[in-house]
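Proteins fold reproducibly. Consider a sample protein:
=====
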Amino acid sequence: MSEPFNPYLPEVATILETVQETHNIMTFRVRFDDEAKMAAFKFGPGQVGQLSAAGIGEATFVINSPPTRMDYLQFSVMRTGEVTAKLHNLVAGDKVGVRAPLGKPFPVEDLKGKDIVFVGGGIGMAPLRTLFLYMLDNRADFGKIRLLYGARSPLDMAFSAELPEWTSRTDIETTLTIDREADGWEHKVGLIPNVLLEMAPKAENCVAITCGPPIMIKFTLEALKKLEFPDEQILTTLEKRMKCGIGICGRCNIGSSYVCVDGPVYTYAQLKALPNEL
């Protein structure tokens, strides 16, 4: 019988598969070596894990596979420093450490019955993907689902293998956009906030969920306010601010709020009540 999960200790996991999403984003699909722990593992959409590379350190990444699909846990890693560079050198069969689940998930129960607008940019699609797929797997529990996903170019779009399925589904509305024209591109061209204004989702009984680069978030929030979305109906996630993941190191705080304890999911209303450090 396995011991319960200890948030202080990494659990050994094996990489089953890697996917090169873009030139600097790689996806890892992993399973715990302890099959009993894998079977017992529970998490909510939006919760994160710390991936560790032996001898280098650890970094925070959202679990971007949904809890409805537990063949493996999926993490997508953008290469930005020493730890992520080490992770990018790993291949199927290699070992990683995983501390998870950490943080609070999206308020799934509160979202049931609501229309949902996802607005993702670049690697920011990873935190949205887990909730997006969870909703697709429980489609009857939610109202109209719309996804706006954008990147600088087609080559910068993560999860490209999944995009044809998302755009072809008739029970959701998917809009893809890139910043400027590209050969062979058949979807929207324009910055995400501008395309969102063109889509003009209605705020009534609707929740907007956004994640992406800070400058995209800034102007997406402005667009949502122009569309008259109340602050309480806008959600975002700040897992990239998390460090230790358990509220001890104090490096993730925004004023009095510790992202790894109170977040990483916040409403815009909650963020506005905190110091402007984003």
The chain has two domains: 11-102, 108-237. The mean pLDDT is 91.
